[in-house]
Fold this sequence. Notes:
The chain has 1319 residues and is an alpha/beta fold. Helices cover 58% and strands 9% of the residues. One of its GO terms (molecular function) is chitin synthase activity.
Amino acid sequence: MNDGENYWNAFRSHKRSSSDxxxxxxxxxxxxxxxxLVLFALCNLVLTLGSVxxxxxxxxxxxxxxxxxxxxxxxxxxxxxxxxxxxxxTTAGIYLSxxxxxxxxxxxxxxxxxxxxxxxxxxxxxxxxVFLEALRAIGLSVLTFHVFPQLDLARCLVLGACxxxxxxxxxxxxxxxxxxRNGRSFGNRLGRCFIAIxxxxxxxxxxxxxxxxxxxxxxxxxxxxxxxGIICTSxxxxxxxxxxxxxxxxYDELYRIKYAVRKMNNTTHVVVSFMRIICTIGVMISAVxxxxxxxxxxxxxxxxxxxxxxxxxxxxxxLLATGIIGLHxxxxxxxxxxxxxxxxxxxxxxxxxIAPLIAYGFVRYVCQSPTCSISRRxxxxxxxxxxxxxxxxxxxxxxxxxYICLVWLVVGCYRGWRLVRQRYFDSxxxxxxxxxxxxxxxxxxxxxxxxxxxxxxxxxxxxIEDEDAVNExxxxxxxxxxxxxxxxxxxxxxxxxxxxxEMRQVLRSILKLDVDHATRxxxxxxxxxxxxxxxxxxxxxxxxxxxxxGIEKREPNEYFHMFFKxxxxxxxxxxxxxxxxxxxxxxxxxxxxxxVVKLPSGTLLFVHLKDKKLIRHKKRWSQVMYMYYxxxxxxxxxxxxxxxxxxxxDNTFILAIDGDSKFExxxxxxxxxxxxxxxxxxxxCGRIHPIGSGIMVWYQKFEYxxxxxxxxxxxxxxxxxxxAPGCFSLFRxxxxxxxxxxxxxxxxxxxxxxxxxxxxxEDRWLSTLLLKQGYRIEYAAASDAETYAPEGFExxxxxxxxxxxxxxxxxxxxxxDYKRASENNDAISYAYIAYQFLVIFFSMLGPAIIFTxxxxxxxxxxxxxxxxxxxxxxxxxxxxxxxxxxxxSNVQLAYAKFMSIAYxxxxxxxxxxxxxxIVLETVVAPTSLFIVTMVAIFFFAACLHPKEFTNIIYGxxxxxxxxxxxxxxxxxxxxxxxxxxxxxxxxxxxxxxxxTKKAPMExxxxxxxxxxxRGLRIISGRERKENVEKREKFEKKxxxxxxxxxxxxxxxxxxxxxxxxxxxERREEETQTSDMPVQQEEEMQKExxxxxxxxxxxxxxxxxxxxxxxxxxxxxxxxxxxETYLKPIKSTPAETKQVADGLAALRNQIAFTILLINTLLxxxxxxxxxxxxxxxxxxxxxxxxxxxxxxxxxxxFEQTTEPLKIDPLGMGIVAFLLAILFVQTLGMxxxxxxxxxxxxxxxxxxxxxxxSTVPNTKNDDERIMTNARLMINATGVTTxxxxxxxxxxxxxxxxxxxxLYKLQKARLAKRMQRSALSN
Length: 1319
């Protein structure tokens, strides 16, 4: 590095200014196949019939703009009894209805795009798109407001079939130009001329629609409006004549938007929406002035829009228009849904090709039958069914335009079929599905087309001859994007003191990944999903000092030896002839040691043994280690160009797992597909299943289930997941390398709140950094992983004591910095911020809400006095608060455990009281309705998760433990906020140099023990023992000298080691209470370790391994990294005491505030209930409502019609909680829909037809892997298949905002600044 810089340390922070088989069981595959078939049929039916209905309603409205009072056709004569009352306000209502159908979606897009532009998210205006969409709006409006009022329904339908006029003209010109091209033979030209003739004829036929009625009937006066409307609509329907041949031409932008290669930016969206609205309103105003409405004025429009009266037909017309708009939204959603399932409607039944034909047939049938029920229903809206406006006096004769109209209809349906016909792609091709970016309400079938495009296929363009087409199946064809399809996955696990079962679990998962990775890398199929795999396990506190023959050595501890033995057992590695394991290499490192293992299928597994005397321990610093090692040293220090390193970063992923995680390879595949789908995803996490045994694990099974079903799903759908669990999450390397993420993650705590936010929940803090920098965190419910959960009460409470404050601190940090988060992250809106605020606010009120529930439930169940019950419940809870402030954690936990058992019985009373309230006040009472709704939603959620349905059973345990978790656990976590270690408060006292305060009983026991010890010391003879100890120390010193002499080749000063050993022994006799070693002792330990650096490799278990040596560059990197970020933190007792005091002050401030708020809330609810007769709200669910009430005089239950008395404060809380639950339920439904789409894709890839009961074969596995890439992004259903929402990281290769470019730019700027200062 000539400039003296470390490339690995280029990251910055800114201050603020394939598996063994399918995971789906056979019955689930059968059910999914059947569901998929039913959904396909229903969706196609809704699309076709919905388009026909929408088209007919629009045409009925348009044909009724002008009054038709003298219709003489058969339908009008027979159905004349249906009286139609028309006023000027009704006519205004018709105009407004058509305007809303066309312009309301544009108005929504205008507002949404304007808000995005206000945030600074603009783009270059695409003028051609604005022009063409304005033409389409003008054409449709001219036809609707000027032409259709003079026609009947049948002629309007056949005229709408002429919209592909420009597409037919384009095809004719291409055919003729191809025939006229130089170099062709006469026969070739003649053949191409014959091919062009049908297209020319179709164009002339469609062109006749612009003038035929002007020639045939003198009553038709829209002679100028008709050709204008047809031509403008045909030009504006640019999706019909823009195709893949326009790539790299002057229409390239339109091509990219149509096929979703480029997203439609906010600036273009706003201008397009604005122009469409202006054009439509302008044409409508001209129609009002030109259609002869003498009595119609602006007052009628205002009245029709603002005067809501269901008895008036103009109000019914606006409601009908609103329903049509809702139908359009539904149909576009169904089209996206079918595209996500890769179930496109059959071409011949697509609305664009079949809807005009069905509508025309229906109109003819109604007019010929005639069916008067339609006339009666339309009369309520002030509308008529217009069958035939012309040639009514010619009886028994076919109208002159009948046959030409049929030809128009046939040609239009044929061209519609040509546009929507299914294209066939190879199963390995990467396909983009897209929809038109705008919704055309007046012709909705144009907005329901799904366009598909392959990123792998070289499409023919205007410049490519047919004869020069490239053979896509040529095995020798060079594919430039083959390299970036091979992702690199680093599986990084953090371990501490896991059990053998937990280690076996994570090793089994890594070995399965090893097999899957090797299978995919050896598969040479084109476009096959492959990934490079490398495993890393970081052992925290893996070394210990042991005494062996009087010599103190630093060796790996028993947990590593257990891991090593287990690894050899699971891999089945055998010794070679020399008695060595060739696949095991031991290496000395600056942070301790390393074991490098080659797994059976070729994957390298690096086991990093961290020595806490040399490097910082705990999980966060292990994460910093592998981030800087894998992303800094491996990527930034590699001798590649910025572009190559950026590509490497984009395709490198870190799979973060715990030392007890269990998962299958297909879980990783799902996360990989999710990350590859959109470049703004910084992290993807899976569904975590707690495992273990015992009541606490049962509780956590239900807790984890509802947290993932509701909370995580809602976060995924409406914003971003706030926490990516460290036990199973996949991180994008380029996201971690961005500013304010990886570098800021190395920050040490300097303020009291930092200790809570940074070190108590490192996973949550890393997630917060990603969200603030603008990256999404998404949740894939189908990616399952298991991890061991706390099985004991104390272990569970201590885990949540760390998690709860960290979770709250990071959420509050995100809420306080909402402007920056919303500005950087498109997925974080103000509405999502408000939702998170409500969630965190009500979680803080949990103790008060549960406390009042317990009080009133006991009052209802036992008939006790409310004041007495409140006091009886307040005393034990208040005593627990006192214990939390004054005693050690073991005392607090013992008391909380006892009270949790006691309150579990109280919850039975709550169950009885709740059931009684439901029976007496009926289900429609607010509280009863909330409880019944909540239970029903939970059961419904369990039904939507059939593989996890049994978790609903554990809801019984969850219910009984509500007081334990929502009251005692919340208070325990809150008041112990200042405890920042994994243990208890005793560790803090020891670190600060203070003596631990003990209870009186403990002090009395200690005094008795001191007396006994003193007596034993006198009896045993102290002097004789001291002489023995001196002799042992002398022998120990001699043995150490012999050990040092054996290592004399290392160049270590032996005398210095021996002197320092004596100094160490002297210090051990004068041990202080401080945990932190002083500087001299640490230096001495380092020298001893240098003298014995190879001793640990001679261990009985490890001596079978080969020995290796770090490269000098990597050794330099580790030394620099440790010196810069990972050097063990040294602090004096005074500094530690200052931190403890700051944490205590923070705890007091927060705890007293939340305790005060909860106390006031509980007291307010109690007092309102006590004065319920005065302060309550009278609520009557419906007229004639009856409920059961106890007669205080007779003591009997009697029915009464009195209104229910509702506590306003409690009702407000219930309403907000119910609103949050409904939002989360909606998010769950959307997320389950997306997960179901992914399951459908898996079933499609598994079997083409039906379900096979034969076990998986090798060919089946290959088919699964070949098509696994087609699994869609679970969130992208609503945006991933639309032109305005598809994001691809390769869409714009010239983007200079990439991470590596930013880092390089900053590094060069820093170098120039340094050079300028030196000059």
